[in-house]
Amino acid sequence: MFKFYMAFFAGKLTAFACLIMKNFVHRAGSNLPGKVALKIDPEFLSKISRPNIIIAVTGTNGKTTTTNMIADILLKCGNRVITNRLGSNINTGIATCLLNGSTLSNKPKADIAVLEVDERSSLRIYPYVHPNYLLVTNLSRDSLKRNAHPFFNRDLIQKSLPDDCMLILNSDDLIASSIKQENNRIYYGIDQQVDDVNECMNLINDLRACPRCGAMMKIDFCRYNHIGRMHCPQCGLSSPKADVSVKTIDYIHRKLIFVSGEEYPLINDSIFNIYNEVAAIALLRTFGIAENHISNALDSIQIADSRYNETVVKGIHIIRQMTKGQIATACSSALKYISSIPGRKEILLNIEDPREQKLGSENTAYLYETDFEFLNRPEIEKIIISGHSLKEDISLRLQLAGIPKDNIYIGLNNPTDDISLFDLDPAITLIIVHDNYQIHSGILTEQYLIKRINEN
Amino acid sequence: MKIEGLFEEAANLYGDRFNLRYLEESLHCSGLNVKVLHTSLYERPNFLYDSEIKLIYLGSMTEHFQALAAKQLLQYKEIIKQKINDGVIFLLTGNAGEIFGEYIEDMDSHERIECLGVYPYHAERHMMERYYSLYLGNFAINNFHNITRNSTSEISKLLGLGADNLDLCSDEAIKIVGFKAQFSHSFGDNSKQYLFTTEKGCGFHRGTKLEGIHDKNFYSTYLIGPLLILNPLFTKYLMHSMGVQDPILAHESTALNAYRNRLRNFCNLEGHEFLD
Asked: Which residues in chain B touch residue A214, judged by CB atoms under 8 angstroms apart?
């Protein structure tokens, strides 16, 4: 235990130092104390105190939003909660969160921990921090460098999960919902809606073939990628029936009407965030929080969409949309959204991942899983490709998507220069799409564009 | 002309399906009427009975699907061997080629998947050790039939490279660029049947320099990117071996520019980005 207490106090000191120097260390505070503690005692996570209830949230997309929603609602309901809200979801981040949530005598300060957990880190966390509940938002293709394919992540999660962990799973995601069949579970989902389709329109669909026998799956309905309901005519595998299901998404009155008759405020229109909200509701109801408490708490919750900004300058509509470079599903959903904006459009794509470029070269494979075909529309009149090393690759991909070469412009090396290629016409919406590691560049590009319009 | 894509419903990881799409579009650009037949796992492959099929393609897939695919193709093992002998083109990318070796072994569970045994190698898989690397290699000119040494101009003529693009060719080989992202490596002697020689990165497995298998018109490599899009010269070579006299690539100038940029970048990189 000596090693543990050394690690504990070293971690506490580091956390204190990070607090004092928070203007300089920024996000390191969500990770560094835990890193120090684990370096001194690799078994730290099994020894640090923790609340009686551990709720873990994992999945490819929506972890942070769902974790924050659950934590906020539990707090509003009067519970003492700790969470890794600052977002470090690997073992060092979990260690930091538990460290910060412990008194100096290693007693938990809270009753409940709501922890966002990176799927890839499952083996380093769940054997030491046993979740009572695990919510899986979805499992889809992620970085091919780390995560290979969603079945790999599923297997990582279930390999390390305790048998007594209650699972809250997405019934509309047959990969996520197949995790650890022997555990108790609750499925959440959304009944078929009017805008669902009977065919997947994305390049990526990891369930075209049955994940059990390999036969061609039959789609009952599809929302995006492999999300929807389907069945295998050969072996009988099918999407499970949801225990907690949304019957109607009422966009006009802004409510979610469940099959059970329960109603909750609709806090965000995007289908991805609707799933996040339904997931949180399913978990909280399973946990025992009353419908009215959840509903009242949701009334005051907003999902901050830092990925999107819209402004109008001298009649010219400007949109800045963030996406995650190297992640085809994220890029595809951003492209699908911007392609659905009505009217004439010009787009500046600045989607290169600067971190990958520092490592030598960005992998191009994700370009061929991203649905650039969404941009093949007559009202998208110009696509400017900004960046350093992938411009020709992106141009080639756009041409293979059927976009005429004349509509594709290879920019200079700097997006703030490339905005000069935009046509400043109030009839044309100007859209800047940038990678999430290019936020500063994206905002700067937007500001330069606004300045150019004002000076024009 | 007919080409067949096997199991695209699942053998489509890492954008690999675009190998076949790009080939199809390039064949159209070269003036050929090409029909692509897609065969799913439990359908009887067309190549078993259709002698007009010039090329068969299989791309990267999950480990579970790899086992299903190996089991399905095992029943056609002898016909596949015959087709390879007859010179039908097989193109396999990512982990697809492992099915044509003797077996695949998961080194954690020690479960073995019996494979076609067309070539004397096997694959070893470590699911907790993902290998990721950039790749730079060479495809030798003696693969171009009837070409002698010091024939850059002959190669460039064969590949339809204009004066602007002669810099992309050398007397010895055409350069190959790509990426590797995999849980498994192959083990066996491919010294007489390798596809690429590696300059930066690794070959069949770590510590080796000979990548893939090339036997008659059988081409298998771990490279992804996709392979044919990142390597327009190799694609032209492949089209030439399909009988296309003047191969023209889809969006050729852009493809060659992208290739040139990547080649320059990979040649200049110091080496730690390439795991050997």
From this structure: 10, 41-42, 65, 68-69, 72
Contact B181 A148 (CB under 8 A): yes
Exposure string over B110-126, b if 16+ CB within 10 A, otherwise e: eeebebbebbebbbbbe
β strands within chain B, DSSP E: 2-6, 35-39, 53-58, 89-93, 103-106, 112-114, 121-125, 131-140, 173-182, 184-188, 196-200, 210-211, 213-215, 218-221
The answer to whether B65 contacts chain A (CB < 8 Å) is yes
CA-to-CA distance for B275 and B176, rounded, in angstroms? Answer: 16
Tell me how far apart the alpha carbons of residues A350 and A330 are, in angstroms, rounded to a whole number: 14
In Å, how far are A386, A425, B237 from B161, measured between CA atoms? 28, 42, 12
Cα–Cα distance for residue pair B186/B195, rounded to 1 Å: 13
Q: By C-alpha distance, which of A402, A394, A395, A329 is closest to A150?
A: A329
DSSP A160: H
pLDDT (tens digit per residue) in A33-75: 999 999 999 999 999 999 999 999 999 999 999 999 999 999 9
What single-letter DSSP state applies at residue A9?
H
Integer CA distances (angstroms), A434 to A203, A431, A443, A445, in order: 21, 10, 9, 10
CA distances from B270 to A361, B134, B158, B265, B274 (A): 12, 12, 33, 10, 9
Distances, alpha carbon A150 to alpha carbons A54, A118, A141, A301, A326, in Å:
24, 13, 5, 30, 15
Do B64 and A392 lie within an 8 Å CB cutoff? no
This prediction's pTM = 0.94
**A399 touches A408 (CB < 8 A):** yes
The confidence score (pLDDT) of residue B162 equals: 76
